[in-house]
Design brief:
The structure is a single chain. 46% of the residues lie in helices and 8% in strands. α5 packs antiparallel against α6. It has a single domain, classed as Protein tyrosine phosphatase superfamily (Protein-Tyrosine Phosphatase, Chain A, Alpha-Beta Complex), CATH 3.90.190.
């Protein structure tokens, strides 16, 4: 298998995608080398990481290397959607989904800043969560805005996940069935709004983000990035 829902942002300095489904050490090494990845920002919770771990040599102070290859900085920057703001089960509309995203950045601006710091320091960086949709979508949206992208570009990038969701959900469901056999099948139903990526959700998030924070560059300064780091994100 592979990292799914994969695509570049910000002139190729960022790759966004899913977790590394079914990659052994050799395949992981090949994937990272093929894409020139120098840092991985893993946005998943500890439980999610334990089910599908990265098999990389880490120069960021993480676990001992599982495979010998040029060092890649592996950054664990978790946000557990079940433990921070709002309930996943309460997401019924696209606006609910956008509000969920707003809750994350409202309570954890540092989480966004930490996710983009390796990019700001010149490393080609893979940013991912589990599906590469929600947490990854929020970080990607702010990265695109900070690099000079328009809101229309942000919405189009977010909605591009829709075409990839059937494959990603199928693989994700199989992963959980193998690791946690008691997981109900409906947990991964494409009918659930939390497993969709409608344009309206990102449009709602962006409207709220602009109203609360003004612009992405100012938000990132307040989230802990230096002026030099924020400027380096611009194309």
């Amino acid at each position: 298998m592979a990292v799914l829902n994969l695509r570049p942002l910000a002139g190729g300095r960022i790759l966004r995608g899913s977790q590394p489904f079914g990659l052994d050490a050799a395949a992981t090494s090949g994937f990272l080398a093929e894409h020139g990845i120098q840092a991985i920002v893993d946005l998943r919770s500890e439980l999610e990481r334990s089910l599908v771990p990265w098999l990389v040599q880490d120069d960021g102070g993480g676990a001992p290397a599982a495979v010998a290859r040029p060092a890649v900085e592996l950054i664990h920057n978790p946000l557990d959607p079940n433990a921070i703001a709002g309930s996943l089960q309460s997401v019924e509309t696209a606006e609910d989904l956008g509000d969920l995203y707003l809750g994350w950045v409202r309570l954890r601006p540092d989480w966004v800043g930490d996710a983009l710091r390796p990019v700001a320091r010149g490393k080609r960086t893979l940013v991912h969560c589990s599906l590469g949709k929600d947490r990854t979508g929020v970080v990607s949206a702010i990265a695109l805005l900070a690099s000079g992208g328009t809101e229309d570009q942000v919405v189009a990038d977010y909605a591009a996940t829709t075409a990839n969701l059937p494959d990603v959900l199928e693989v994700m469901a199989e992963t959980w069935r193998l690791s946690v056999p008691a997981t109900p099948a409906e947990y991964f139903s494409p009918e659930l709004m939390i497993l969709q990526s409608p344009e309206a959700a990102m449009q709602h998030f962006l409207a709220g983000f602009t109203q609360e924070f003004g612009d992405a560059r100012r938000f990132l300064r307040e989230a802990g990035l230096t002026a030099v780091e924020v400027d380096s994100l611009a194309l």
